Amino acid sequence: MKYRFALSVPALSCGMHNSDLFHKLDNPAWWALNSRQQSFSIGDKGVKRYQRRILPFTALEKARTENLITLAEWLEPGEIFYLIGELPPLPRGIQLLKELPCAQMILQKPLPDIEMIVNISKLSAIHKEEMFRLINKVQPGYYEPETYQLGNYAGIWQNDQLVAIAGERMRLEQLTEISAICTDPAFTGRGYAQQLIVHLCKTNLEQGNTPFLHVLQTNERAIRLYEYLGFVTRRVISFWQLHFTV
User: Fold this and answer.
1) Which candidate, 233, 129, 134, 239, places its Cα nearest to that of 181?
2) Rounded to two decimals, what is the model's pTM?
3) In terms of residue numbers, what domain contains 61?
């Protein structure tokens, strides 16, 4: 496959230099649930969560123990959920299972002009079983049966099998997270992931949205790919996996 840098890629959003915009990425779920994804939000004044079966993410306006206590009113006994960013001291009944330090990366350079060698299909509700099966085969634990409702998802099919996918997860004003980037292990090494990412990034840039993503710090191969595509690490941010034990 040959690559060349495009001269016609849409200009990056002016928000790229807007610190007031990017500071919201320190608490991305909170700002998503209070803006473009408010329709998926339940909670109280200082605490929010995505509806069950949509996404296991919760958010606090301020990282305070009392807010976690309030959040517990919106959790089910035994539920496993995530907080992103600063973690306050945990109250009784909420147990830390795992810290997942991630590189938070923002698209800040022109996209390379990648030769599209396969058809990219828009995915919808009729594909939700195939989407759920593939994503949880490759990246279990983050994608729920109804997560596809959060944004646009695109996929690549081979012989009527969904073999690669990428989509939009948290969406804030002028910012869109690219997520669920995965390829069936039997079909890796064909450039499917980068084609899907470029497709979604171009769509968002044309709409005035800056793409961003999260990737485990230990996933050096993926980080190199994202850097090649024009993403730059803004900060390291932790996803905290928590268990409501009450």
Assistant:
1) 134
2) 0.91
3) 19-101
